[in-house]
Amino acid sequence: MTKRSIRGALRSIVTSTTTCALLLACGAFVGADILESRRTLERDLTMLASVIASNSAASLMFGDSESGSIILSALRAKPSVVSACIYSRAGTAFAVYPHRPGNRGRPPSRAPRPGMRFTARDIEITQRIVFDGETIGTLFIASDMSDVVATMKRYMMAAGAILLGSLLVALAVSSRLQRILTDPILHLARVADRVRHGKDYSLRATVAGKSSPNEIALLTSAFDDMIAEIQQRDDELQRRRGDLEEQVERRTTELRVANVDLVGARDEAQRIADLNERLSLHKKTILDTAAEGLFELDENGVATFINRSAASMLGYSVEELSGRTLHDIIHPDDVRSLPVTACKVCSARLGASLRSGSAFSFVSRGGTTFPVEFTTSTMPGEGTPGVVVTFRDITERLAIERMKDEFVSTVSHELRTPLTSIRGALGLLRSGLVGNISERATRMLDIAVTNTDRLVRLINDILDLERISSGGVELHRKWTTATELMAAAVDVVQAEADRSGVSISRQDDHTALWVDSDRVVQTLTNLLGNAVKFSPSGSMVRVSGQMKGNGFTFSVSDTGRGIPAEKLESIFERFKQVDASDSRDKGGSGLGLAICRSIVTAHGGRIWAESREGDGATFSFTIPMKNVISAT
Ligand code: ADP
């Protein structure tokens, strides 16, 4: 189709151009010839008219129409003349030359005006006949133009033949020449078609060795460049598509793996959730089965959790107390009348993060009051404020403590008093004031006195400890200096130290302390006594005091056998000794350090021991800063 259209177009261009050119050329040629023939005819006719006019002047002068007709008859020599007429001065016909029959070319009855006129087939000339400068008549000659028409026909035929011949030649030449143009274009079109259908961008339209630097060659080369570029882009596209497919495949694999991981993670999350659920159930069970009452309150005192023990101690079910403001339920009237925020048990905002108390009572459902010991912890962190309260019913414990107190007082009165009189009696006997006793009896009395002393000390220690730790002993504080306290303690143990060959070094410090001096001296005495007791003869025990950190610290150190690391804490418990033989060999009951701790704790301080076994021991205790006025 492409082929036919471009070739057809070229052919019609050539044909129409050639035809137009030839038509124009022939037309111009024929037109020029016709014009020339007409001009010749005009000239000839004018000359003929002039000759006949001058010849006919005499005939007119003399009114001889016959000679006039003779003169006109000379026109026979000119076959193209169809009619002629000589008119008189008056314009009437004088002599007529009717050469041809019929009306054609018949001269007008009256003389026309001078001049030349053309009709469809004829040419007419009218000329004045002048004699001696005066118009004496008029001559009219009509000649047909058949010659001219014949010539024109001939020319036309010749022109037609030339036109036809030229057209044929032009067609033949053009169809030969058009190949030069159309072949590369058609080749280009074919290549383009193949590229379009086959998507084969390696094809090229340039034929090797045939390229010539014309516009078609340029077009072909541009087409090739374009195809090359398309091929390059196609290659790039293919490469990118390959990359993309690879990426998609990789991502798909990753996604599949991630999916597997996700499923694994989901299973793991489920497992953890199950575990958490089991754990929280377990925790709930633990909390529920705990003997202690436990409840959690939000900042408004509303119970967000309560365990079974707490509910049952208060005489309710867990459900009955959950979500209720416990402050309005569990306290006696005097505490209940306070706002929740001021309640030592329920407030989430009151004072320290850990509060406790043992002189408190809760009210159970029936309105019965029971004593409790509680601990309130406020929620840690910045989150929603709230408290966790644990409490226990201490009714029984208080009863036991009462019994113990009674027992202690019994011991105090029923055991210590007679023991004191026994000790007195033994002392009297031993002194010999009530009579002489044998040496053997003296030895026995010595043993009895020593053991009675020991027993008295033990009972005193027990009573002391009970009184101090139950808060039964009030501290009688007064201002004193560290030096005074240390000196008093050294005085007590000096005699024993001398006996053991141990020297005591005291480092004075005049810091003022607000303490119960008897109790602090008792503590220092106990520590110094132990230090002397466990120091080898000839060694030195040091007692000192100084401001340290947030308080005043007393220290007693020796160079004795020391204390094993694992016992550094336990020796402060009742009846605990490093070695069971200590009580036998060194005397003592194992209650001294327990008493010391009670005294120090009652002062708000702390006591501890440091030692490297075999390398002596150092006992230290603190008096809090609020009870200290530095000497400097
Ligand atoms: P005790 O009346 O037996 O001395 P303490 O409570 O004062 O009771 O001491 C408890 C135990 O701690 C002692 O029996 C002893 O084993 C050990 N202990 C105390 N002080 C020292 C010390 N300075 N060096 C070595 N051991 C000591």
Question: What value does the average pLDDT take?
Answer: 85
> Number of DSSP strands?
18
What class, by secondary structure content?
Answer: alpha+beta
The share of residues in helices is 40-55%
Distance between the termini: 122 Å
**C-alpha geometry:** rod-shaped
Radius of gyration from the alpha-carbon trace, in angstroms: 77 Å
Strand content: 15-25%
Query: What order do the strands of the largest sheet run in, or round the barrel if closed?
Result: 2-1-5-4-3
Mind describing the biggest β-sheet?
5 strands, antiparallel
What is the number of helices? Answer: 14
Bound ligands: adenosine-5'-diphosphate
Low-confidence stretches: none
Give a verbal description of the structure.
This protein has 14 helices and 18 strands. A hairpin with a 5-residue loop joins strand 1 (81-87) and strand 2 (93-98). It is 53% helix and 19% strand. The strands form four sheets. Strands 2-1-5-4-3 form a five-stranded antiparallel β-sheet. A five-stranded antiparallel β-sheet has the order 7-6-10-9-8. The chain has a five-stranded mixed β-sheet with strand order 12-14-15-17-16. The mean pLDDT is 85. With 632 residues, the protein is an alpha+beta fold. The two termini are 122 Å apart. Adenosine-5'-diphosphate (ADP) is lined by residues 526, 530-531, 534, 558, 560-561, 563, 571, 577-579, 582-583, 588-593, 617.
